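Worked example 3 (structure in, sequence out).
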């Protein structure tokens, strides 16, 4: 989460490499839902930077942050749902330590 606030998206790469079938579609849907929600309610990002230090340049900052949170929740729920479905179908093995 800290990396995301700093505008660094590479923190998601290990999760995408571990399970690309569940992670990549979930990331895409979460990003689409969150950004569409924010833009639909009037948030405009005037500076091409997603890091926290560019947030003062965003119009309707509360809507922008709500879009980020909505996208994160959608992504998390979708990853959990898809991984659960794969586990139930026997296509995902969970190893205990």
């Amino acid at each position: 989460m800290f990396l995301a606030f700093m505008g660094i998206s590479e923190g998601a790469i290990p999760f995408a490499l571990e399970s690309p079938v569940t992670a990549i579609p979930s990331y895409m849907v979460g990003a689409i839902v969150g950004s569409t929600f924010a833009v639909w309610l009037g948030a405009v990002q005037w500076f091409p930077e997603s890091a926290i230090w560019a947030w003062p340049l965003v119009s309707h900052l509360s809507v922008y942050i709500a879009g980020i949170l909505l996208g994160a929740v959608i992504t998390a729920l979708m990853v959990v749902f898809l991984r659960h479905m794969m586990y139930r179908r026997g296509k995902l093995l969970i190893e205990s330590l």
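Notes: The radius of gyration is 16 Å. The beta strands are 44-45, 58-59.
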